[in-house]
Amino acid sequence: MANISCNDLLAALRRGESLPEAAARRLGEEQHADFFRLIVEPLADSFDPADAAAYERLMQLWIPHVHRVPPAIPKRVDTVYVLSRVTLGADIKITSIVLDAMKRRFPEAHVILVGNRKSAELFTLDARIEHFNVQYPRSGPVSERIAFGEQLREQLSARHSIVVDPDSRMTQLGLIPVCDPERYFHFPSRTSGGTPTDEANLTRLTEQWVQETFETDASAFIAPERVPNDTPGPRAAVNFGVGENESKRIPGDFEAHVIQTLAARFATVWVDRGAGGEEAARVTAAVGAAGCSEQVRFWEGSLAGFASVIAQSDLYVGYDSAGQHAAAAAATPLITVFAGAPNRRFRKRWSPSGPGPIHIIDASLRSPAECLERISEILNKGT
User: Which of 70, 65, 55 is nearest to 24 (CA)?
Assistant: First the structure.
């Protein structure tokens, strides 16, 4: 078992076999990118309680088991620390609901988002949300990521405070104690929802959890700094980013045809160039192939800035990414082309949810041409 692969280890975990500890530790330290991509993410993305238990068994090779006690809301709460989910889409879909709940439940307390600058920028205009800047090592070995979580305990020590964890990677999904257990509130997003056949959306599950835990209603929201937008309307916003997961993309000239279809109906089509590099080159080429450059405006900046553009648009179109959750939170009509989901339950959990019109196209059931035809149908009927 000395040369066990990540796929072998995942299979052994799911069969409930004894773990080859030395080999597992080596994978987590020396092949950490594959360790998280091929083992940790599949266990989390299945939303299966058995996989969640297997994940905890694996991480106990690094994190000693901690006895949990039910938390209790103190009589006095001066500070509420809310941990970022690290990824921006999850911070909109899940963390923002928790932030909204904390503002309502503790109107006199400091509500502090613990996360990086990009996450904080999503809530810049909300005076109630303060920011404690931390940088989770997303590309480090397991030991480095755990050391980061352990250091948080020293930093989240304000008197009369509680910590609310929406299943953050900073605590390795609730396994690293970052405060005294009686003031730690953890939302178990991977096991919430009951039976393995439950297909509830994470938006609803988060809302339900804060209601049950803190007895308050809450909704997803964004409050980025407003980007001046004097382009002619109506406007559409497009994001074809896939976060380095090419399985989320529709191949061929699909993206060019989508832009062309939108340009026939909207005076301005905002296209996000993302973080640059291959993604920027790809969408730039798609705009060129669409033959409508005069109507296109490229966005080159932060996700928070593009979220402001989305909030001021009449339609959003994109793949499964943070943009869809920004549109849902802003009640902007949206069309999501959902490709590359590892399973049906994942798609149901992560599909956008909000008060505005939402159309989800399951690309696993349609060809690229059929996906494009469905977009045209939605546009013809009006969003």
Answer: 55
User: CA angle at residue 296 from 291 to 302, to 5 degrees?
Assistant: 135
Reduce the DSSP state of residue 109 to 3 states and report it.
Answer: coil
292, 270 contact by CB (below 8 A):
no
79-214 falls under which CATH superfamily? Glycogen Phosphorylase B; (3.40.50.2000)
342 pLDDT band (50/70/90 cuts)?
confident
Tell me the CA distances in angstroms from 112 to 17, 134, 180, 210, 375, one per residue in order: 42, 12, 18, 17, 40
Are 45 and 342 within 8 A, CB to CB? yes
The whole-angstrom separation of Cα 170 and Cα 178 is: 10
Quick one: CATH architecture of 235-381? 3-Layer(aba) Sandwich (3.40)
Same fold, 79-214 and 235-381: yes
Give pTM, 2 decimals.
Answer: 0.95
